[in-house]
Amino acid sequence: MQHDLDMESGRLSAPSLLRGRSPVTSRAPVVRNAPMNVVSNDQTERPTGIGVNGMVSASAQDSLDLLATSVVVLDPQARVVRVNASAEALFDISSRMVIGQSFPKLFANGHVVEALLRDALDGGYEQKRVDLLLERAAREPLALWTMASRLDGFPGALLLEFREQDKRWRVDREERLIDSAQANRELVRNLAHEIKNPLGGIRGAAQLLQSELDSADLREYTEVIIKEADRLQDLVDRLLAPHRKARMLAELNIHEVCEHVRSLLLAEYPRGLRIVRDYDVSIPALTGDREQLVQVLLNLVRNAAQALHGRGRIELRTRVVRQVVIAKQRWKLALELHVVDDGPGIPEDIRDRIFFPLVSGREGGTGLGLTLAQTFVQQHGGLIECDSRPGRTDFCILLPLQ
Fold first, then answer.
1. Which CATH code of 3.40.710.10, 3.30.450.20, 3.30.420.10, 3.30.1340.30 fits the domain covering 14-165?
2. DSSP-assigned letters across all residues of 114-163
3. Rounded-to-integer distance, Cα 306 and Cα 301, Å
4. Which residues, in sequence order, are CB contacts of 106 under 8 Å at separation 6+?
5. Residue 174 pLDDT exceeds 50
6. For residues 291, 294, 299 and 301, what is the CA-based torsion angle, rounded to 10 degrees?
7. Could you tell me if 59 and 49 are in contact, meaning their C-beta atoms sit under 8 angstroms apart?
8. Which one, of 381, 379, 375, lies nearest residue 185 by Cα?
9. pTM value > 0.70
């Protein structure tokens, strides 16, 4: 007996929704292919959820948008009939742009999709499950778990479900990142307090000693002690900054933050640096601390500019993602803010430690910028992720939208 209940999410799968099942988990008997009272020119009775010419009804589309899996419905010519919200986010496409287009032609290696469709239709399977690596122009390849299901009552029509293979790996990585960040914060805070306590005494003793010295040469030594004590004090203050100041929460436009940071960096690097924008203007207002978010983005963009030595390309890209899990909590909507540069990339030996305190890939760097940025974002319920290789480094700020 075939079960359509997704054991991971506890929701009904896409084929069951299109066959007329209500998205509940009751044990009431279900009549497959119940009529939906659709009147067409040929007066042919259609299965629930599917309209004339393979079009998905509004109610079925709403149900598909509730699924965490990415769903694409194809007609017998492999043209796109419907995509749900998760598929739009996964493939970075707009349903209005791709409906009616050949789905395999959206990918550089569309032949693998065509092979899947042929197997699903000609192999006599009700469902065909495979692992696919889909390549897209100017984008990262997608490693996907894929299932193709034939639609009853529509010969040649298929429903494709996609899940990222690395989703579980990403969740595990996020959990490790959050746990290590929390442990590091506690360690740094305790260490900072231990340093600060004797630091004031060292500086005060150096000032008293300086006042008792008559020799200018000897006073130079006390000046060194005082300056180094002040430098350490500044370092301690930066380490304790996220824990001292109360956040000032208010609604803000993330693109205004992006434009502010962009203007600052272009003033700092007036020649040779390009900061291009790719904004999703439909993103709703975000509740957050503007000063903290400006500091986060400024750290990331400035790091990118320094890696490029002031000459190169930085991209600021915003997107809305749906049904995303951050720190074991699912959010209907979240913001993705990408800072992408075409620099040399982060050294491989520190890639897994870049958010640790005092770890820096730049000579003279304090190693605190990314630590503070991660702390500020996590205080907003979000996370910063990094994907880096030579020629492309992508820092992604993920923030829930209330």
1. 3.30.450.20
2. HHHHHHHHHS--SEEEEEEEE--TTS--EEEEEEEEEPTTSTT-EEEEEE
3. 9
4. 91, 93, 98, 136
5. yes
6. -170
7. yes
8. 375
9. no
